[in-house]
Amino acid sequence: MVRYGLLARLEAKPGKEAELEALLAGALPLAQAEPATRTWYAFQLGPSTFGIFDTFEGEAGRQAHLEGGIAKALMDNADRLLATAPQIDRIDVLASK
């Protein structure tokens, strides 16, 4: 059962929305290659606001994800694409289906 999660909120710089969207959509193969990542979603909340939600069975999987390719890609492009630092919250999953 998934018990751990991450919720990240990303705000694109003006004019960088399409690039951030492409980066997130292109990260799917990286998420698929992470055996401990049970679910992974990249989404858009508004014109310049994006997010990532993912779940894990254990803390080790969550930590591996934070140290993996998607996080590296985001951090490598943060200054160029993001208006503010990413807001990344560790969450505890109370129930899921």
What is the residue-averaged pLDDT?
Answer: 97
Number of strands: 4
User: What is the N-to-C order of secondary-structure elements (H for helix, E for strand)?
Assistant: EHHEEHHE
- Uncertain residue segments: none
Gyration radius from CA atoms, angstroms? 13 Å
**Global outline:** globular
Helix/sheet category: alpha+beta
Beta-strand portion reads 25-35%
Oligomer state of the chains in this structure: single chain
How many helices?
4
Explain what you see.
This protein has 97 residues and is an alpha+beta fold. It has four helices and four strands, in the order βααββααβ. It has helices at 17-26, 28-32, 59-66, 69-81; strands spanning 4-11, 37-44, 49-56, 87-92.
List the helices and strands and how they pair.
Elements: E1 4-11, H1 17-26, H2 28-32, E2 37-44, E3 49-56, H3 59-66, H4 69-81, E4 87-92
Antiparallel strand pairs: 1-3, 1-4, 2-3
Helix pairs in contact: 1-4
Main attributes?
97 residues; alpha+beta; globular; single chain; 4 strands
Quick recap of the structure?
With 97 residues, the chain is an alpha+beta fold. It has helices spanning 17-26, 28-32, 59-66, 69-81, and strands at residues 4-11, 37-44, 49-56, 87-92.
